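Exam revision sheet. Question 4 asks you to relate a sequence to its structure. Input first:
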Amino acid sequence: EPSRRDTSFRMDFIIQLQHSAVMDWVRESGSLLGYPAILFLHTIGLATVAGLNGAIDLRLLGVAPRIPLAPLTRVFPFIWWAFGVTALSGVTLLIADAETKLRSPVFYIKLVFIILALINLQLLKKRVLTDPQVDTHPVTSQARMLALSSLVLWIGATTAGRLMAYIGPVAGLGS
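Answer key, structure tokens:
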């Protein structure tokens, strides 16, 4: 079966990357410029993405009602830049411990939360914030629902990310 062969090839490639000299150094060097720095970048990126998104969500849910909504579209380049940092550092963290993370159901739950949160963010921008009349009428129930679901999705993604350290396969232990 081609699909089984393709999957096996991809896994073999990812495992080879995990055991490359660079990933061995990232994982095992003990240098602050290795795993700790990449984890720090991942944390800062995620905090920026979820934090800015959360601020928009809270505004839509009635917090700080005097802040106009329309100018909040200006934070989207920062959100996407921070997401790029988060994604690149996340891929590096994944490759550094692929055999463990790719066997963890919590990892896939985290990815689903992130994908849904990003889709939700785009819907929020398109359906709410780009409306030229957004600041002239009350926040719609659709906008509030998107804001609430956004908060739930980012909290879910963050929680799943933290739980990966405690639930599922543990690095260095056999199958």
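Marking note for examiners. The chain has a mean pLDDT of 89.
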